[in-house]
Write a structure and sequence with these properties.
The protein has helices at 3-23, 36-51, 61-75, 90-96, 115-123, 126-133; strands spanning 58-59, 101-110, 139-146, 154-163. The chain has 164 residues and is α+β, with helices and mostly antiparallel strands.
Amino acid sequence: MGFKLKNRLVVIAALGLLCSGFAQQDPAKAEGDFPDFAKEMLVACNKVREAGSLGKFTLNAELCKAAQWMAEDVSKAPKLSHTDSLKRNPGQRADAYEYNWGFIAENIAGGAKDAAEAVSLWMKSPGHKRNMLAPEPNELGVGYFFNPKSKSVKYWVILVGRQR
């Protein structure tokens, strides 16, 4: 075997090992592309779901974009609402970000210092708790916005969904 062929085989073998590692990677570890606040919210939401013997959420990029847009939008509004400044509901926002939903629900919190506090507040509200513990959703979108000129300053939005 010539020197060039041996080097190519070594490179091919190394690439094969790298690719096999990615192929076997746990989907929960693929959450690296999301901001820390989204990962923290995922952990907080999944703790509640596990306690209720429900399946864990995974983060979804389209839902995160829709939730982030809403967190920024609601920070400019006079009060918290699930209808945004463009008069859209959560389903219409998910549609705008090309999330093909069969189930969608939204929770909003203003003023919570972190993800754990937002989840704690939602668990004290029957409607928000119902969204957190619904058996249908398996994906989560998270938005967070800090607006020091607003009433609540910190805004958290989650969208929970399941694709068709």
